[in-house]
Design goal:
With about 160 residues, the chain is of the alpha+beta class. The protein has five helices and six strands; from the N terminus they run αααβββαβαββ. Helix content is about 25%, strand content about 20%. The model has no long low-confidence stretch (mean pLDDT about 90). It holds the Pfam family Acetyltransf_1.
């Protein structure tokens, strides 16, 4: 809920955030994708948020993520991977699946807001993904208002 509410999500009771996400899921376009364990297909092990940038008001924050242009992009803004499944390619698989879904939806591009962990002093909070992961998927930097937090895109059309 961070990209929808900004810091307010931390001040709200967890159940309020859960109900808000449930409402989003049940009343419109799904807000992302789930990854499941290949050997245990009933177990969700990861999630990524994929949604129109216009639905994420907090992305208009001028310091890092102010819009680059008026392209009608889908934003790949947040990841969660269960700790037992980290460093196994789950997030990269979610990026690939999200891009395939965006292409089927005729989106012009997918945009991401990763952390460049190679920049000294960058945050270790990589819930938005890493530059290396997105670069490996073909994304390119389209803006970098601060060195450690570029905006990256994969053009689909």
């Amino acid at each position: 809920m961070y990209w929808r509410l900004g810091p307010e999500y931390k001040r709200r009771p967890r159940d309020d955030n859960r109900r808000a996400m449930h409402s989003i899921v049940s009343h419109g376009i799904p807000p992302g994708l789930l990854a499941f364990d290949h050997d245990n297909p009933d177990r969700a092990v990861g999630w990524c948020q994929l949604t129109p940038r216009a639905d994420l008001d907090w992305l208009d924050h001028p310091r890092y993520t102010e819009p680059v242009d008026d392209a009608d992009v889908l934003s790949l803004s947040c990841f969660y991977v269960h700790r037992e499944y980290r460093q196994r390619g789950v997030a990269a698989a979610l990026v690939k699946a999200a891009c395939e879904m965006a292409e089927r939806a005729n989106a012009p591009a997918v945009e991401a807001y990763p952390v460049d962990t190679d920049v000294p002093g960058s945050t270790s909070n990589v819930f938005t993904g890493t530059v290396a992961m997105f670069a490996a998927a073909g994304f390119v930097v389209v803006a970098a208002r601060t060195p450690s937090r570029p905006i990256m895109r994969l053009w689909l059309t």
